[in-house]
Amino acid sequence: MEAKQGANESIRFEFQNHIDQLNTAPEWWQTFKSQSFESYSNAPLPGRSDENWRFANRKGLSLDTFDFGPKNLPATTDSLVEQSDLTSAQSGRLVFADNQTLAYNQASQELQDKGVIWSSLQDALVHHSDLLKDYFMKQDIDLGSEKFAHLHSAFVANGALLYIPKGVEIEAPFCCYNWVDAQDGAIFPHMLVIAEEFSKVSIAEAHLSAGNEPALSCGVTHLFAGVGAKIDYTLIQNFNEQTLGFQINSNIAGKDSEVKMNSVNIGCHHYRSETHGQIKGSGAHVDMRSLALVDADQEIDQRTLQTHSAPHTTSNLLFKNALMQNAKTIFSGLIKVDECAQLTDAYQTNRNLLLSNTAEANSLPGLEIEANDVKCSHGATTSEIQDEEIFYMLARGIPKEAAQELIVYGFFEEILDCIKDGKLAETARIIIREKFKA
User: Fold this and answer.
1) Which residue segment(s) compose the domain that 435 sits in?
2) H or E element at residue 38
């Protein structure tokens, strides 16, 4: 039987300091955080019999070495702000480092006059407390990282709130950058997007390391799409390879809405990503796409759920992983179709490309269908680069290492093509190229 690990005295002490600094925050926020910390303390670490952690390496999940206290602003503040420019245009920008706001580019006055809210969580607690109370952490966490979701709720100090009123359409993305700088520091990125009826918006988020120090990131992204709304979201994760990362994503898609989520995962020593697409309105469509390039002894653990709770809905999931050296990936995905969700059309695909004999890719796709008039499929493939492909390039004077690199670019291009902003997609390609040079 797995032992329960509560919060040690150091974490409890840091939480008390955190709460003591919130004496001017709304009472509901303080209560919510205190309850979340107790839930974190009482929840066990993942056990050997936990199906949601199958194949995952559970060693190294202890958080005792991380410093949860507040940090000074990094000495490289100006440099980090300057580097936080990954898109060709922007409707607003927030830059955080060690949970503190470094830069805040507001939405234009025209958008503000239409009712658009683009705010840090710290400001939202003051000016939009009721909106935050209605939506903050309201989506269930049900893919295995409940303990870490409670930790996030307890310690989150900053993040981004984006509210798009009914009928407002915005082309240029809202951009949020979360940097970790302090040694053994802990950051808690948070992105909350609320898109009302027939609105349209895109978001670009980046999680980055300022140096090579060990760190913890425990992030949450929640997207709410109202009737006919369209949300396009992209996350680039490029922490250093000494970082322990948890990222919990979910979306709720209302009637006739469209939600697209793209992820590019390059960094972290151990990275756990959970994504739940909740298709709750008829005519809704959800796309979930991800790529991961891992080397050395990195582990990327991906858990997904596509829940169809209404008729005439569609979803499509495509996760691609390329593995070098002793890297390991885990993909565990489930399509769940409720009895009422007739005429569902859902797909789930995981493809793994092995660039080493010692790399390990695990795939666990699944279906749970209660309706009788649906079209659902899932598939997983794991393969090595074919000798014929390498020979073709060698015959044209391309060295073997460069040939492998080009093949990986082609493998990922299907995902990169889905990133709407051209500069952001090119940034992802550059990060992939730099990974091969490391």
Assistant:
1) 386-438
2) helix 27-42
